[in-house]
């Protein structure tokens, strides 16, 4: 008669046999709890009206993620009025070994009119300076002449938003700063602005944080391309960021500057995720970039 064994004993015996097999075969047991990517992509396509949106959500608490702000090119005139030169987002990201990057702050450029399309006056190498505060690796390389909102990346793998005057001291825990035009979400609520800039639809670039400041959401929405995407007002942008789980959010430079790039897993080449409204990349003054020491899924 076959002796009865408790189910738990059978399970333990099965595990023991499997381990013996792997040891004898010179193989390793199957890996468990393989870490997932700290980056999650979303592509959002809507119709009537048309919207094309791309979102990258990043876990800042993951030690495999590092975030940096960097200028386009080096300071071209020392103590002069300019602090950088214009460079395309993809070229800056390649130089800095970023795996994901978005355009940053609004900026002024030397002898330039804001012309849309292929004949834009914003060209590579022009002397420029951002409108707001800018910091890279703890070094503040531009102070704002007026109170502006900014995204601050801190040394403890968190981020937060602030607003600063040129004379206000900064928290020493802040290591990166990128400024924008408007805070669009504050404490979970959409902020409303009534200027033409706010109420007209444009391509937009935004960043948001969850309440704990450890989940960073980067979003670009294309615009000025009716068959693809009409763009968003600031209020529509804020509502979208809230829907994505942001407790606070900021609007960065948009229009022809709106660009997001990522490093393609197979080729390791940097690709543009969205469709810039100038029909090509517009050089910009600074970017927010991420280096991710882990597999990154493709946006598609």
Task: Give structural notes.
The protein is an alpha+beta fold. It has one domain (34-292). The chain contains 4 helices and 20 strands. The strands form 4 sheets. A 7-stranded antiparallel sheet has the order 1-2-16-15-17-13-14. A 5-stranded antiparallel sheet has the order 3-20-5-18-19, with helices on one face. A hairpin with a 4-residue loop joins strand 1 (39-46) and strand 2 (51-59). The longest helix has 19 residues, at 7-25. It starts with 6 loop residues before the first helix and ends in an 8-residue tail after the last strand. Residues 1-34 have low confidence and may be disordered.
Total discrete domains: 1
Low-confidence stretches: 1-34
The backbone outline, from C-alpha atoms, is: globular
Strand order of the largest sheet: 1-2-16-15-17-13-14
Summarize the helix and strand pattern as letters: HEEEEHEEEEEEEEEEHEEHEEEE
Count of helical segments? 4
**Roughly what fraction of the amino acids lie in strands?**
25-35%
- Got a strand count? 20
Summarize the amount of helix as a percent range: 10-25%
Rounded mean pLDDT is: 88
Biggest sheet details:
7 strands, antiparallel
Rg on CA atoms, Å? 23 Å
Helical/strand content category: alpha+beta
Distance between the termini: 60 Å
């Amino acid at each position: 008669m076959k002796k009865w064994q408790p189910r738990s004993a059978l399970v333990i015996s099965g595990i023991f046999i499997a381990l013996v097999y792997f040891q004898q075969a010179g193989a390793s047991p199957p890996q468990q709890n393989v870490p997932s990517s700290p980056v999650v992509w979303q592509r959002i396509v809507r119709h009537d009206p048309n919207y094309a949106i791309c979102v990258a959500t990043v876990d800042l608490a993951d030690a495999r993620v590092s975030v940096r702000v960097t200028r386009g090119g080096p300071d071209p005139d020392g103590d002069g009025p300019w602090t950088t030169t214009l460079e395309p987002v993809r070229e800056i990201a390649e130089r800095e070994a970023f795996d994901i990057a978005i355009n940053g702050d609004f900026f002024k450029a030397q002898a330039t009119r804001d012309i849309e399309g292929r004949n834009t006056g914003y060209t590579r190498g022009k002397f420029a300076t951002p409108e707001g505060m800018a910091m890279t690796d703890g070094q503040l390389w531009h102070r704002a002449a007026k109170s502006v909102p900014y995204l601050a990346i801190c040394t403890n793998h968190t981020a937060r938003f602030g607003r600063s005057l040129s004379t206000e001291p900064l928290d020493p825990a802040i290591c990166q700063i990128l400024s924008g035009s408007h805070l669009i979400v504050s404490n979970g609520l959409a902020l409303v602005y009534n200027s033409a800039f706010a109420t007209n639809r444009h391509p937009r670039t935004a960043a948001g944080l969850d309440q704990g400041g450890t989940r960073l959401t980067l979003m670009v929405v294309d615009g000025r391309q009716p068959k693809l995407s009409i763009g968003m007002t600031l209020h529509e942008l804020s509502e979208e960021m809230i829907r994505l789980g942001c407790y606070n959010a900021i609007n960065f430079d948009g229009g022809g500057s709106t660009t997001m790039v990522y490093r393609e897993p197979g080729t390791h080449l940097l690709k543009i995720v969205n469709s810039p409204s100038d029909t090509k990349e517009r050089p910009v003054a600074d970017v927010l970039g991420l280096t991710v020491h882990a597999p990154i899924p493709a946006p598609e």
